[in-house]
Amino acid sequence: MPNELDETDVSLVNESGRDAHVIDKKVAVKVDWKSTLFTVMLWILGILPGVIFALMKLKAKGYLQQLQQKIQAAASTIDNYQAQRVIVLQNTAKLLDKAIDLDKSTFTEIARLRSGTRPEADEVRNELQGKLDVVERNINVAFENYPELRAHAEIADAMRQNSYLQQEITSARNLYNDTVLRWNTEIFAWPTKMIVAAKAGYTTRIPYIASAETKAKAEGVFF
């Protein structure tokens, strides 16, 4: 039977506190001796049950690999839109002649995300989203101080592009989170998928978490 998850593993939430708490720790899939005994018993009962379960595990392995590919595809879409948003906001900052921090390290992070060399890629994507939201806020502050800037055609076009890209990022994030939720559920489906996931060393994935800037906007007073 599947192991019970340690309560300390599943109760961790980000320190800022959210209306909907999100686990920000990856939980490894593990099985105990009962799962091993279950597999052995199938072979003891006869070759046919053992072979059938072996085929079921092969099918489960292929399914989880396909699900991984869907997660990677969704993550790649987010990375592409974020890269475009970086360029748009950087160009806007130049037009405003403001010293807004969008340095080379940001582009380096995006490149490393695309190459898959960062094991903590989920966390990095969230951090990058937060940085971009801060830049957008600073640009909006400049608009408040110098409202005539809104009439600048290039700036207005850039901010429309930024708004469009953020909508696309949100849509891509929703798809990513849906797939991650499916993954986090399936890898603990005992016995077949959980045994396969444990053997492969799979862990849960961390879903997208709204940045502090986005959360502040959502809780703001609009009227």
Give the helices and strands, then pairings.
Elements lengths: L6 H4 L22 H13 L1 H50 L7 H12 L5 H25 L7 H34 L5 H9 L11 H7 L5
Helix pairs in contact: 2-3, 3-4, 3-5, 3-6, 3-7, 4-5
What's the gist of this structure?
The protein has 223 residues and is mostly helical. It contains 8 helices and no strands.
Protein architecture, described:
The structure is a single chain. With about 220 residues, this protein is mainly alpha-helical. The protein has one domain: LemA-like domain (de novo design (two linked rop proteins)). Helices cover about 70% and strands about 0% of the residues. The radius of gyration is 23 Å and the shape is rod-shaped. The N terminus and C terminus are likely disordered.
What would you say the CATH architecture is? Answer: Up-down Bundle
The CATH class name reads Mainly Alpha
Output the CATH homologous superfamily.
Answer: LemA-like domain
The coarse overall form would be rod-shaped
CATH topology call: de novo design (two linked rop proteins)
Order of helices and strands: HHHHHHHH
The portion of residues forming beta strands comes to under 5%
Ends apart, CA distance between termini: 54 Å
Number of domains: 1
Profile the largest sheet.
Answer: none
Report the uncertain regions: 1-21, 98-102, 218-223
What is the count of β-strands? Answer: 0
- The DSSP helix count reads 8
